[in-house]
Structure formats: C-alpha cells, structure tokens
Specification:
Layout: H1 3-24, E1 29-30, E2 38-39, H2 70-91, E3 102-112, E4 118-125, H3 130-143, E5 158-168
Antiparallel strand pairs: 1-2, 3-4, 3-5
Helix pairs in contact: 2-3
Length: about 170
C-alpha cells in the first residue's frame, strides 16, 4: 500500500466514523439531576462494530517498488553527473602547500556538449584572488572531457554553473 493509498484509507475511515457519530447515533438525553452528564443509548444505534483486529502497517502487504519514470532517471543521472564533474574539477586544484592560506570561490559558466567536452568556459564570479581564478580555470581545462556524459541526458548543449571552492589553510 502506498503512502497515498494509506492517506485515502485514513480519510475514508475518518469520514465514516464522523458520519456515524453525527447522523447514525440516536440523540442523547441528559441524566436527571446530573451536572451536564449525558447518557448515550447504543443498543438501538445503527452503527456496526467489528471485533476483528485491525491490520497494522507491519502486517499489510508490502507495496511493490514503483519503477522510476524517465524524468526521475534523467534527474538522477544529471545529479550524479554534476557531482562527478565537480569532484573531478576539485581534484585538479592546487595542492594545499602551494600558496599557504587559500580562501575563495571562483564561479564559472560552462557549456558541456554531448560527448562531455566543454564548449565554453567563462568566469562569472571571481574568488578575489587572481591566482585562485587562474588555478580554477586550469583545473577546468584539465577536467575537460574527463567525465563521460550519460546518454540519458541527450546530446543538446548542457549549460552548467560550477563553483570551484578553495578553503586551504583554515
């Protein structure tokens, strides 16, 4: 049973109980002299009671796993591709000891073709340090074509914004 089916079943049970309580029970009469106490006579009510134990979620048949549709598979492939591409670019950065304390983020706009090659690379946000910007640009060029683009993403140019992060020596 899926989550949606569970919610629908809960709403149906709730509606049935509310209907039975509002319209199915006879009106209650106050007790003589009791301080607002009410007696409800259930012997004539048209409400059915079941003595069977309810089915728990553990006892219910497991729902069959839904097959992800094409859009979900494409989205998953895109996220994995972007993660792998980012890891590859970050692996080509300067080593920690090259310049001591390096802090900054260089942001690039990249267009990836159907083979995974970079058609264009443009710096759209400087790190504030020309050395870091140049190293990030170098890391991008060394990563060009290193990550194979999944076929499910098609062959149309894929525009990406990638931030190369430097936080050495903190």
């Amino acid at each position: 049973m899926t989550d949606g089916e569970r919610i629908a079943a809960a709403v149906a049970v709730s509606l049935a109980c509310h209907y039975a309580l509002l319209f199915g029970l006879p009106s209650a009469a106050p007790v003589d002299g009791g301080a607002g106490a009410v007696i409800v006579d259930l012997t004539h009510a048209d409400v059915g009671l079941s003595l069977a134990a309810p089915i728990t979620l553990e006892q219910a048949a497991p729902a069959e796993p839904a097959q992800p549709d094409a859009a979900d598979r494409r989205r998953t492939a895109l996220v994995q591709y972007l993660d792998t591409l980012s890891e590859t670019v970050h692996a080509h950065r300067l080593s920690v000891g090259a310049h001591g304390r390096l802090i900054g983020n260089a942001t690039f706009r990249i267009v990836v073709d159907g083979r995974g090659r970079f058609q264009s690379v443009a710096l759209i946000g400087s790190s504030g340090d020309p050395t870091l910007d140049a190293d990030a640009f170098r890391a991008l060029h060394e990563s060009d074509g290193a990550v194979r683009r999944p076929g499910i993403l098609g062959i149309a140019p894929l525009p990406i914004v990638l931030t190369v992060k430097y936080q050495y020596g903190l």
